[in-house]
Amino acid sequence: MEFAELIKTPTVDNVQLHRPFHPPVEGTLCLTGHHLILSSRQDKTEELWLLHANIDSIEKRFVGSLGSIIVKCKDLRIIQLDIPGMEECLNIASSIEALSTLDSITLMYPYFYRPEFEVVEDGWHSFLPEKEFEQLSSVTDEWRLSYVNKDFSVCPSYPPVVIVPKSIDDEALKKVAAFRHGGRFPVLSYYHKKNGMVMMRSSQPLTGTNGRRCKEDEKLINATLRAGKRGYIIDTRSLNVAQQARAKGGGFEQEASYPQWRRIHKTIERSSILQESLIKLVEACNDQSHNMDRWLSKLEASNWLTQIKEILTAACLAAQCVDREGASVLVHGTEGTDSTLQVTSLAQIILEPKCRTIRGFEALLEREWLQAGHPFQQRCLQSAYSNSKQKWEAPTFLLFLDCVWQILRQFPCSFEFNEHFLVLLFEHAYASQFGTFLGNNESERYKHKLKQKTLSLWSWVSQPKETRKFTNPFFEANGLVIWPSVAPQSLQLWEGVFLRWNRSSKYLDEAFEEMIHIIEHNKELQVKVNALRRQLAELETEDKMAESP
After folding, report:
1. Entry pTM
2. 285-287-288 Cα angle (round to 5)
3. φ, ψ for residue 66 (rounded to 5)?
């Protein structure tokens, strides 16, 4: 297909662009295969370059011969284009709708993007499972790499290489896969060096109403237990939902079959409810009534902060079982591709200092989200403004990033990266020039040759000048476990995402850059800041340990 076929009117002159906190800009609107561009001849006016993939929905309005297109984006911004001429406006709107809803992955911008920077590191090969296993094998010999899924036939949503107990052979893994929803058999998620306990993840067992068993499954998860120790299974569904799943062939681990494991249900809402929560939150943030009661009522009705609290509570529980109880943990919900990954990855941020560095956080996202099979293509197909009926969409990854921001805000000196990095990841998950978040799993990325034909986001982030933008100037490495507070008073609305376009972010960004400049060039202040970091790290840990569940 040629993009030109979808572009009825490629350019229109005398178009006015309206954005909050910016003066109107008049210029020439241009449509390309992947971008909406508005170029102005006014001095010191930046061009607008908007990826079609970032457009969630559009609205058309007409007053006489003047047409307006309201463009609502997946990154939550809203812009207005005033276009002279009804026919031109209708043509532009029709083209935007067609170009922003392309189905084929290979027609998306990452396949056409050519970097203007020198690629020093190939991000596609920065966080391979083999490299992760090298670090694990230096502290324990109880695990092995399995290539049982090398052709994606055992589990379509798993990577070709997984880490499993050394005592379990590949034939047993195939039997366990047949017993787990979607073939997602239990695999290693995290090894706690402090006490040798582990966290594993999987999907629900297919026990059904007849209480079906799988000896190989029982043997696999029991292989993670120490003699005389119990383990914990954290099910991210309510007991009622888990019991309903049994009637459909799913279910949960029966105590009679898993006597050494205690099952705990920590409810995290399903995708459709989370998507509705996002829509209500964004609607509240865009409310122009300036009525305090209305704002607070809408914020509460969205239940967004409640979702944050439930996810963090489940993650804290998983971390507590591993670190304080000295027990191994298995986490799963139904499919094991959404709430399961939120819990396992947040628990690692709590437990593992390395995950709070830029490089370590990238490795965590690769391991626990991309390679683990979170369906980014489906979940991020639409954001909060889409008019079409939601099917697979859910802000699962955005909720995770929000949870990370909540912890970062409570421990401002314990993270090497800053809020800008989290916002960047949110943006690129929904629309990007890089191929990192395309596809729903490794199988699809392999099929579409993403690693050969597109660039990884990590290749761009690893450039020193870019890394500097995402570095927290107050970072002081904290080797301790950090326990975030989940009390309602401790959780806040993430203004950097949800109110970002409702304030003059340009001046905030400039102030942030100036702050970094001052700190980096004032040696005396640097010494004082480092001393303050150490004190804060100690106080933070003491406070959070006292508050933790």
Report:
1. 0.92
2. 125
3. -90, 125
